[in-house]
Amino acid sequence: MLTRKKGAPITIKANRCTGCLICELRCSLRFEKVFNPARAAIQVRRQVGAPNEYEICFTEKCDNCGLCARFCSYGALTQERGKGA
Amino acid sequence: MAISGYAGSILFVDLTSARITRETLDAGWVRDLIGGYGINNKLAYELMPKEVGPLSPENLIIIGAGPFAGTLVPGAAKILATTRFPINGAFATAAGGGSFAQMLKSAGYDHVVISGRSPRPVYLRIAEDKIGLLDAAELWGRDTFETTDYLRHRYEPCSVIPIGQAGENQVKISITAVDKAGTLGRGGLPAVMGAKNLKAIVVQQGTKEVRIAHRLNLQKLVNNLHERMMKWPGRQYIIDNGLMRMPQDIAELHQKTRRPLACTSCPLADKEMIRLTEGPYAGLQTYMPHMTVHRFTADTSTRVYEQSIKYTDTLNRYGLCHMNFTSLFYLVVRLFREGIITGEDTGGIEIKDDIDTALILAKLTAQRQGFGAVLAEGLLGATQRFGHGVEKYIEHIKGHSIVYDPRLRRLGTMEFEQITTPRGAHVSAAGSPSYEPGRPPADFARHGERMGIPPEAIKRTVTETSFNPGRFSRYSEDWYSLFNCLSLCNRAQVNRFYHVQTIAELYRAVTGIDHTPPEMMKIAERAWTIGKLLNVREGFSRKDDKAPEAWFEPLVRDGQKHQMTDYYGTATLTPKDMEDLLDDYYDERGYNRQTGLPTLARLKELGLEKMAAGLNLPG
Predict the structure, then answer these.
(1) Is there a domain that residue B326 lies in?
(2) Residues of B in contact with A30 (CB under 8 A)
(3) Which residues in chain B are contacts of A25 at CB distance < 8 A?
């Protein structure tokens, strides 16, 4: 299922990701009304042995609401100002 | 259905029989003890008989995640591990970061109780209903990082509590790290795992959700905390440097080689990954909770930095406690230099204050080989083995090296509480404004109110010109207990944003359970008291709450003499002053001053009178 995108694309800088999972927790709360990173539309995946600890990607469920970027504490996710939901 | 905020289950794993069972989390325990530290202590008290040897199969390892774990509450990542520790025989609870607590909840469990001893090396895999004890023969002998990577390759996304060689060899100064960077179990938790033939615990991300009672309220409270943390001027320093202050030349090198890592839900990432690209250790990639500078005999900033990283990396890989091993290392350097121990004692090793000697001794200690078998016993055990009357050279509290020396920092709560904590000298057991120097008494009153200290107790504890660390520490301990019940990080940099009223509101939003701030603090005290009773049951009392004698002698550092003074530096403290402060501490706890034991009256107020049976407690 493709979801209609609400806002501007999210820009990813994976080298800034610290693995705090705030984005996944925010996202699962928004979509599922509960906390579980596995059910978020954003996925932060550890890269075992790679220079960047984490890879970030989105599932088809993501509608670019921008919640993840708004609460990313480390600049790994950004969205052009005013374009988020 | 489980109470909101809780997974609702306790997992029981018996390593001897490989039997796996589950029980529903008792709603009454949640009401009385919240979770995490509190329920860990309750489980330990209910399930463990007296006088169980720390390394015996009968000792339990009880893992717990509190109700805030797995939510967005900032800093709610602590996993709590309760056991009887081999370094001193004390029951205590270790707290570590990473993502284990969140993942355990997602797998459907609030607590895990591990008993017995496996007939062969195994690791415990927790994956919702698939709980397995898997063969760890291939992992035995590997270090903590290798073990973590091995399990990540198989089970990612996952979180790992491994042990290194020090744990396998039941070294009493062993420690481990959750997800490579969240230190856990100073005092030999890995030795307990090693004695059980348990190489690691891995929990996989599950599909179970953490439900929230009042979602919108929680979002509002969390957003407010998040915003305050993001605007805090001290935040950027932590992101750039980690927690520790260090000389500018070292800090510049550090910034170039590190990148911050965070525990789940934390906007104040203080852990780090470090990669060295030049010098003798080029290619080294490591992880640590924070940078500690060791000068050894290095002659340039670059060498100091590289050697500090190499040293810490080595200890972390073996799973050796940085603080306890370093204290031992400098002790044997001094004893060797002064001729008190010789090559006959060290197996022919010349003990020098250099990185190579430190690395050799770390390896021997982790493997319990030669002289290392002596060091593996920790400060107390090693000095007893040395003989020569070297006990007078060591400074320890209940077998642990000193973390905060009041001769350098003056006597604040963190310095004082090292004496009273059942665990022995440890970090972050009793935070207060005295974490920093020169804070006025008004700050203690303000923070006391934040920490839920009753107004009449603040009057007893803080005056216009000073504060009483004995009395204040009692409340710092309860504050720490509350955070550990909830799985909330108690670092000064995190807990400064929390008020007991906020915590009560967060707890209501997450769980739907309505506790007033005084009720929250009473639960925290109850949880702490059960931890105390676990140790009272084993014979610990005021006789064990002793400041090192060395604190009453000047410490010479860089040619300057430092005496232990009160926090404001107005007077040098004597043994009598310290005994008076201990009297104040026990008095504030409602304990008997002579014995340092809880009174029956206090236990009754906490609803713990049934636990007094057989303890011969004062009225």
Answers:
(1) no
(2) none
(3) 71-72, 264-265
